[in-house]
Amino acid sequence: xxxTTTTSLFSTLSKxxxxxxxxxxxxxxPLKDGSIVILDAFDNPLIxxxxxxxx
Length: 55
Prior knowledge:
Distance between the termini: 24 Å
Number of helices: 1
Mean pLDDT: 70
Low-confidence stretches: 1-7
Helix content: 10-25%
Radius of gyration: 11 Å
Number of domains: 1
Shape: elongated
Strand order of the largest sheet: 1-2-3-4
Number of strands: 4
């Protein structure tokens, strides 16, 4: 996996809806408040975070 900046990572997250990470398929969905929820293969929420709080 290539190294990426936080900005490009979040621009990717906002454009894509799934990715294969470490052999497992994960999906995410943006929420209205700007948070992003990462889901596992069974659509269970794994983590929710708001990238706007990191700046």
